[in-house]
Design goal:
The protein has helices spanning 17-25, 46-54, 73-87, 107-144, 158-169, 175-182, 186-217, and strands at residues 3-9, 33-37, 60-63, 90-93. It is α/β, with parallel strands linked by helices.
Length: 218
Amino acid sequence: MNIYGYVRVSSADQNEDRQMVALREASVPEKNVFVDKQSGKDFDRPNYKKLVRRLKAGDMLYILSIDRLGRNYEEIQRQWRILTKEIGIDICVLDMPLLDTRSGKDLMGTFIADLVLQILSFVAQSERENIKKRQAEGIAAAKAKGVKFGRPEKKVHNNNFEKIVRQWEQKRLPFTEVLKQCNMSETTFYRRLRENRMLQDSKKRITLETATIIRCTF
């Protein structure tokens, strides 16, 4: 029997130390620990796939919590079935002692383990959905208060911007110098140019409409 461990953190910025410490305490050889540092939203985890290919019937896999196996209820259930039924390994979930397939292999033990698995995987998915909901609500509330997300827009006074654009259009200023003076990327520059042109066209249209109304009135 070979002993393995699996660790996943949702991004490269998160720290896997807590999971690694738990696996060391369970005497999992460090060379047999597979780690993925990326989002679980698409479940494309290269080291998890390597681990599954290496596992053989009778092997032992340790994970800290059930949500390391999947992103939602269905995925957790599917991975558990693949590992325990199709490959035939044992799994121990360290933060939930009832989820240890080595104990209670009789009908009652299997029933209890399956029931606990269903409850915990449901809770894991519910918590994930609640987190996303709270994030969306927080963003909506912040936007309602006027909080802006993303990079702050670089400020260039309209008069200066128009002057720089005229010099560029008259070939008196190279494009690289235009971007430098505006302190903008090429994409931002063209977006700003397009917005200014639309604003000017709108002002001209309003002026013409106003003049027409005045002529008709008098």
